[in-house]
From TrEMBL:
Record region (Disordered): 211-237
Gene3D superfamilies reported in the protein's UniProt record: Zinc/RING finger domain, C3HC4 (zinc finger)
UniProt protein name: RING-type E3 ubiquitin transferase
Listed GO biological process terms: immune system process
Source taxon at top rank: Eukaryota
Length: 237
């Protein structure tokens, strides 16, 4: 292995920040340094029937092949869709896992505590707002039926409208944050599949499906007639 190849592999591993999954680690160290077979450029292990190697870009040599799972982790961690060596845009399509197979969102303990406190506070606040509006509307209805309003009717109506509007705005702002969190969780459980790069020079639009039509022979005869009679050449003996 040359020094340039080692430095490029080290750069790819440093950028990705991803180590090889346990299932894809080499069974022996000898396969890592094997030059007779193709190896993954991230984990340096060979491919097999369960984890085959793909060629997602136009890198050549020992940097051509990579495991699908290794490349998926690299794309998630680096947040890029382009090979950093040959600058080829990966051909990808994504698929969401079934909900029963979703994994927990990767968050720190501080983030989990903040979310728990935020949810508790919002539940208590919404409960208080709804209960206050319910009591105010209930008492106003009783006073209207009895004909003895302690406050003017329009004053209570304005207070109810302000409280209801404030509650809706509060719920909208907080629900927006939770929607973003759900989108983040959904993106975390998205599986990205990378296809093999097409061969260089391959273009579907360049192919001509219709065969080239040959001109009929009589057209060439017409051209000869239009040119006139050809002068005869005499050969002297």
């Amino acid at each position: 292995m040359t020094t340039t190849t080692r430095s490029v592999r080290r750069e790819v591993n440093n950028v990705s920040g991803v180590s090889a999954p346990p299932m894809e680690r080499c069974a022996s160290n000898t396969s890592t340094f094997s030059f007779s077979q193709d190896i993954c450029r991230i984990c340096h292990c060979e491919g097999d029937a369960e984890t085959p190697l793909i060629a997602p870009c136009y890198c050549a040599g020992s940097l051509r092949y990579v495991h699908q799972s290794c490349l998926q982790q690299w794309i998630k961690s680096s947040d890029t869709k382009t090979c950093e060596l040959c600058k080829f845009n990966f051909i990808m399509h994504s698929k969401i896992k079934p909900f029963n197979k979703w994994e927990k969102l990767d968050m720190s303990g501080m983030e989990r505590r903040k979310i728990a406190c935020s949810v508790t506070f919002h539940v208590v606040a919404i409960t208080c707002v709804v209960w206050s509006l319910y009591v105010l509307i209930e008492r106003t209805t009783e006073e209207v039926q009895e004909g003895s309003l302690e406050w003017p009717f329009w004053t209570k109506l304005i207070v109810v409208a302000i409280g209801f509007t404030g509650g809706l705005v509060f719920m909208y702002v907080q629900c927006k944050m939770y929607v973003q969190l759900c989108k983040r969780w959904r993106a975390f459980n998205r599986v990205i599949y990378v296809q093999n790069a097409p061969e260089k020079g391959f273009c579907l639009e360049c192919e001509d499906p219709e065969p080239h039509l040959t001109k009929p022979q009589h057209s060439s005869q017409k051209d000869q007639r239009s040119q006139g009679p050809q002068p005869e050449t005499h050969v002297q003996h």
